[in-house]
Every structure is written in structure tokens, then in C-alpha cells.
Amino acid sequence: MSKIGLTKEATKKVAEHLDQHLADLHVLYTKLHNYHWFVQGPGFFTLHEKLEGLYDGVAEEIDAVAERILMIGHSPSASLAAYLKKAKLKEADSVGIDSKEIATSLLADFSQLVTGLRAGIAAAQEANDEVSADLMIGSLSEYEKTIWMLEAFLK
Ligand SMILES: [Fe+2]
């Protein structure tokens, strides 16, 4: 039993979910920059600015997720090579892209992240790791809002 009252064995699955999320967040972080730079056409100003807000949020989330993995006694992946190998999200090409294509692509990505987070939250609750669950619920809440906005943007 560690000083926080959770065994390393009990949080193994939680750490795996968090590390998967960490890898996907790195792909998302780069992809949001990609779209911030390459967005073109109508919606440029709206998305250019919105994407900056999103990648700033992801940067904070990356740090919180990696540090949580350490707090529960595990090691976060910490190289781009490891993230790319592990991530389920796919990178985007470095080419001009219109705002509807961006919103559609991000909608799919956030939807995938939401599915992963729900599984992670269930694993954390099963391990009585309420703080990891809370961290992921916080992200889930943000992503559900982002999904709602992207859907509204596409209507
Ligand atoms: Fe910028």
C-alpha cells in the first residue's frame, strides 16, 4: 500500500488508461496546431482563435495526466516516438483545410476520446481511485462541451 492508500497493482489499469489518453493528447495537441495554422476560407477567424484555446487547454491537461500517473506510482510515456506508437488518434497532413473539414475531423477525434475516457473513469472508480476518476470526468465535461460546439458549427 502506498502513502496515498492505493496499491500499484490496483491502479495498473487506471495508469494504462491515463497513458493511452496522454498519447492521444499529444497527437491532438499537434493536430490542433496544424489546423490553427492551415485553416482556410470562411470560418478562418473563428476557428483559428478557437483552436488556440483548445490546444492551450490540452497542454495543461497533458501535464495533469502525466503527473497523475506518477502520483499513483506508475511511469507516463514521455517521448514523441512512444506517443505516436501508442496513440489511437491519427495525425493530419500539413495542407490547407477548410473549417467544416476541421470540425468534422475534430468531432470524430473528440468522440473517440470521450469513449476512452468513459472506460478510464470506470476503471478508476473500480480501483477506488476517485482523484483519477475526477481528473477524467473534468476532461469528459470539457469534451462534451466541445462536441456540442463542433456539432452546432457544422449545422
Ligand atoms: Fe498562433
Quick rundown:
This protein is an all-alpha fold and 155 residues long.
Description:
The chain contains five helices and two strands. The chain has 155 residues and is mostly helical. It has a single domain (12-154), classed as Ferritin, CATH 1.20.1260.10. A two-stranded parallel sheet has the order 1-2. The radius of gyration is 16 Å and the shape is elongated. The termini are far apart. The structure holds fe (ii) ion. The site of fe (ii) ion has 2 residues, from loops.
* Helical/strand content category: mainly alpha
**What small molecules does the structure contain?**
fe (ii) ion
Strand proportion: under 5%
Number of domains: 1
Order of helix and strand elements from N to C terminus: HEHHEHH
| Average predicted confidence as pLDDT | 97
Dominant shape? elongated
Features:
155 residues, mainly alpha, 5 helices, elongated, binds fe (ii) ion
SSE map:
Layout: H1 12-38, E1 39-40, H2 44-71, H3 80-86, E2 97-98, H4 99-126, H5 130-154
The structure holds fe (ii) ion (FE2).
Fe (ii) ion is lined by residues 36, 52.
